Amino acid sequence: MELNARIPPGPLEKKWDLHRFEMRLVNPANKRKHTILVVGSGLAGASAAATLGELGYQVRCYCFQDSARRAHSIAAQGGINAAKNYQNDGDSVDRLFYDTIKGGDFRSREANVYRLAQVSLNIIDQCVAQGVPFAREYGGLLANRSFGGAQVSRTFYARGQTGQQLLLGAYQALERQIGAGTVTMFPRAEMLDLVVVDGRARGIVVRNLVDGTIETHLGDAVVLATGGYGNAFYLSTNAKGCNVTATFRAWKHGAAFANPCYTQIHPTCIPVSGEYQSKLTLMSESLRNDGRVWVPRRAGDKRAPGEIPEAERDYYLERKYPSYGNLSPRDIASRAAKEVCDEGRGVGETGLGVYLDFADAIRRLGEDTIRERYGNLFEMYERITAEDPYRVPMRIFPAMHYTMGGLWVDYNLMSTLPGLFVLGEANFSDHGANRLGASALMQGLADGYFIIPYTLGDYLATTRPAPVDPGRAEVRGAEAAVRERVARLLGVNGTRTVDDFHRALGKILWEGCGMERNALGLRRALGEIPLLREEFWRDVRVLGTGEELNQSLERAGRVADFLEFAELMCRDALHREESCGGHFRTEHQTPDGEAQRDDAHFAYVAGWEYAGPGKEPVLHKEKLVFENVHLATRSYK
Amino acid sequence: MNLTLKIWRQASPIDRGQFVVYKAPDVSPDMSFLEMLDVVNERLEAAGERAIAFDHDCREGICGTCSMMINGIPHGPARATTTCQLHMRHFRDGQTVTIEPFRARAFPVLRDLIVDRGALDRIIQAGGFVSVATGNAPDANAVPVPKDRLEHAMDAAQCIGCGACVAACPNGSAMLFTGAKVTHLGLLPQGQPERLRRVGAMVERMDLEGFGGCTNFGECHEACPKEIPLSTIARLNRDYLKASLRTA
Fold it and tell me: What is the pLDDT of residue B246?
């Protein structure tokens, strides 16, 4: 396997333009003859399916939810970045490019990130034209706010529901195409395997979640936009249904998995309250525009926040990172929170929490302004905790949130398996070792609206895929394997529930491969995961049959894949003997506790190849070449 | 606290279905309603009984997937709160809680508490969009939008498409859902060219899907977790009338 990024020649700012001209086109009459399978209907999937439909392809789009509008992009709160420079505060495509490369701790590809920054401009235009109600100033023009890792205001937002509004924009575009007949939608349909014929991705095996029917769908290319794998940790800010199955199945068919150890822990989530906890709720990073993060100066200080005088508070982000302060990037803010809690200065009953305090902002701007900016977030916080954040500071703690790793893709967003394209969080491409806030929405829409429509056309025009005979052994084999696996899950008939195993896996990962990692903990996790997996296949209890709506069976399949995938994640974390972004190895830190990169040995993308059952995956390296930015120590001080 | 749950169980769309009573002991007030059901389900499975099927996903009140009637109210007793965000502190020890699927002719039950809300997607397909293909948008700041108008559009755009309005309505009407989209797009300059065509097509689809008419009960607004205002229905009616006059 070779990881050839196929980065086009030419100067950085010209690469995409030149490439677009070089790429071959499919003429309108021929587009109708191609069937494209798009899996996932979040920002990346919906925007891709809608746009490919508009272009005239025959698109089939799949989602496990009951409607395309429910994908978890909908939950993104804070905003979407774009280098519009409407605020005249020094922003530019180059600055967004640089901030993103630096934010990712110099572990992403220059050419991809530059293209992302360029395309960001078109995204905002497109969304506004669709009727996305971005916040505006009194003059009627668009408003912006700041996000972590940036010193300009380039984030566009729709109250605290930006992801919702962007997804509804894409969903409406998708529904329009469904109405026009160019896209066929398959809701409550889960992809359980990929069909590879003659070395190319040519179809998927899908289980209808309502009646359990298993069917194979064939096409000329497969586009995966199935999101990240944060739910491997059980507790995360992801929706309950988010899973790794589609990308993991593709990995087993030969698509390299890149940087699985790059996971993002979000600093501002509502702390865990009990064993029954089923998920964690994010409080938008945008709150750090006006909220100040602090803990008591003294360990074990159990006074109520209001009784702790100013002089006895430690605004640790402002103290440690004076230039970025409360808007330090996520990885840094998360680790800083862990550090103060480890020192015994955490707040709340469990001691696993820090304050996010709006008292100053309310004094300065008035409660109405704060309500206008964050009203729905404050309400959500109060609903969950029964505390009023206008009166008492919020309590927050870091939680698993986003995965920068994903299937390896080249500049055209194609994986190492020809014909398999991967978009959005499901790929690894743009965020390096840490994603900046408000950049996931940007990437999902860039991939779906503005990149895949060109690169997919080039693939089809170049390869001219011939129809696949559904009777081929590879096609029938994939479907048979899915049936066999479903039967196996139902046949174990053990004693422990699926969730019980999932929780156990989550604990192993949070301990061994969470906010901080080291060789000892990772080796321990690598010892524990296979044992848990064995037990799963010996003792899991999945009731009912495969020929009906069976949520336990759905979850069992996803957890079975997480149980294998978790090992890959730990293996990658163990091999990367450096700290970078969200991957913090305690063995590799500067004297003041910051991440210490090792550019001489680790300035590469780690792409893992599946080597067969029971065999160790094989590591391939894509060297990261920096021609335009200078590799520097990432500092927000 | 200890609760008694009376839950609708139905094995398939063609099954008759019935209420089954379960005990829910040791419920923490800090649990969400769905976490309480998770615990009940784990106990059921441990005892060899099928878990209660219910729709849920984001569990933070925004995806609109969760859909159940709790004591006869869509999403339960707390105002402006989806089931997933409803916490058990709203219930008291010893209480009996009745849990049913969203009920409406246009929402057939698939299993237990899960219904098919595909009809709502089809209303959007009929016209709930601005016809702007990717790539031909003018600069985002080219058309200013007055802030108050934008805020009103956003109030309507917040709809999460859960269908609580339909389940709450004695007529099973989807007017609040449809009104929200008609209002969101109708208030913005980008939505003007298709405004009248949109409302006609969406209302026609709504009728076709078996949703009832609106007789101004206002139950929909009371049940709406996003508090979509009733004025969206008034706007729909105004636009619909205009559209009818134009085509007449």
Answer: 81
**Residue ranges of chain A with per-residue pLDDT less than 70:** none
CA distance B228 to chain A (A): 14
Name the residue among A276, A384, A544 with its Cβ closest to that of B39: A276
Of the three residues B111, B137, B168, the one that is the final residue of a domain is B111
CA-closest candidate to residue B183, choices B159, B219, B205: B159
Query: Which chain B positions have a beta carbon within 8 Å of A142's beta carbon?
Result: 140-141
Contacts of A136 in chain B (CB under 8 A): 144-147, 150
Domain residues for B44?
A: 3-111
User: Which uninterrupted H or E stretch holds B245?
Assistant: helix B231-247
Query: Is the CB of residue B188 less than 8 Å from the CB of residue B153?
Result: yes
**Whether B232 and B125 share a structural domain:** yes
Please check whether residue A74 touches B, CB under 8 A: yes
Q: Which residues of B touch A279 (CB under 8 A)?
A: 59-60
- Confirm or reject contact between B248 and chain A (CB < 8 A): no
A156: β partners: A80
What pLDDT does residue A541 have?
A: 98
Sketch out chain A's domains with CATH numbers. 266-400 (3.90.700.10), 473-597 (1.20.58.100)
pTM of the model: 0.97
| A75 in reach of chain B (CB within 8 A) | yes
Q: What is the tens place of the pLDDT at every residue in A18-57?
A: 999 999 999 999 999 999 999 999 999 999 999 999 999 9
Are both B55 and B132 inside the same structural domain? no
Residue B248 has pLDDT above 70, yes or no: no
Of A50, A139, A500, the CB nearest to B144: A139
Q: Å from B166 to nearest chain A CA?
A: 17
Q: Are residues B17 and B63 in the same domain?
A: yes
What is the Cα–Cα distance from A116 to B173, expressed in whole angstroms?
44
When CB atoms are compared, the residue of A74, A142, A450 closest to B58 is: A74
CA–CA distance, B68 with B111 (Å, rounded to integer) = 12
Active-site residue set of A: 330
Average pLDDT over residues B181-209: 98
In whole angstroms, give the CA distance from residue B57 to residue A242. Answer: 8
Q: Are residues B122 and B243 in the same domain?
A: yes
Q: Specify which residues A551 forms β-bridges with.
A: none
Query: In angstroms, what is the C-alpha Rg of chain A?
Result: 24
**DSSP character for A450?**
I
Query: pLDDT band at residue B247, thresholds of 50, 70 and 90?
Result: low
A511-561: per-residue pLDDT in tens? 999 999 999 999 999 999 999 999 999 999 999 999 999 999 999 999 999
CA distance A75 to chain B (A): 6
